[in-house]
Write a structure and sequence with these properties.
This is HTH marR-type domain-containing protein. The protein is mostly helical and 165 residues long. It has helices at residues 10-28, 36-48, 53-60, 64-76, 98-119, 124-149, 158-164; strands spanning 80-84, 92-96. It folds into two domains: 1-32; 33-149, Winged helix-like DNA-binding domain superfamily/Winged helix DNA-binding domain (Arc Repressor Mutant, subunit A, Orthogonal Bundle).
Length: 165
């Protein structure tokens, strides 16, 4: 972590959040794990249901050919399957399988155990401080995640113009 400015500025806050994310990712990711994009795609399918390949690519910020390859790999592993859209049989959707859901659930249990073990290295006072910080930051972080995954607002809409004034 390097101090480049006030942690209250957007830049300083972005750096602090990046540092926290890096700590968690480094501690949770192991060499045999699926890629972050693979896990994120599976998680998105679990939370939001089947989706078109183009929607997944846009949501994950990757090119459609890259998402196509990723979905092929996940399908070969039995973690996703292609299904027909119920309203338009011409449309193919990607859906998570039972094996995919089980894998995500197992990963979550392992990650929780690893984080729990890491948190036990803190003093009781530090854990209390972190708990208070997370209680305050949790709702804000959830809103940031929603904002990050929401479709971009078009300029000129009431919501977009209200936030720019």
């Amino acid at each position: 972590m390097h101090e480049t400015g006030s942690r209250q500025s957007p830049e300083g806050l972005a750096e602090a959040l990046g540092d926290a994310a890096l700590l968690v990712l480094r501690h949770l990711m192991t060499g045999g794990d699926l890629s972050l994009t693979s896990v994120s795609t599976l998680d998105r399918l679990c939370r939001h249901g089947p989706a078109r390949l183009t929607e997944l690519a846009a949501a994950e910020g990757v090119a459609q050919p890259s998402m196509t390859q990723l979905v092929h790999r996940l399908a070969r592993m039995g973690l996703v399957q292609r299904v027909r859209h119920p309203g338009d049989r011409r449309v193919v959707l990607v859906a998570v399988t039972k094996s995919g859901r089980e894998l995500l659930s197992q990963r979550q249990r392992v990650h929780d155990a690893r984080l729990t073990a890491l948190l036990t290295t803190l003093s009781v006072e530090d854990r209390r401080a972190l708990t208070a910080a997370m209680q305050a930051a949790g709702p804000v972080l959830r809103q940031l995640l929603l904002n990050a995954t929401a479709p971009p607002r078009r300029v000129g809409t009431a919501t977009a113009s209200a936030t720019s004034s």
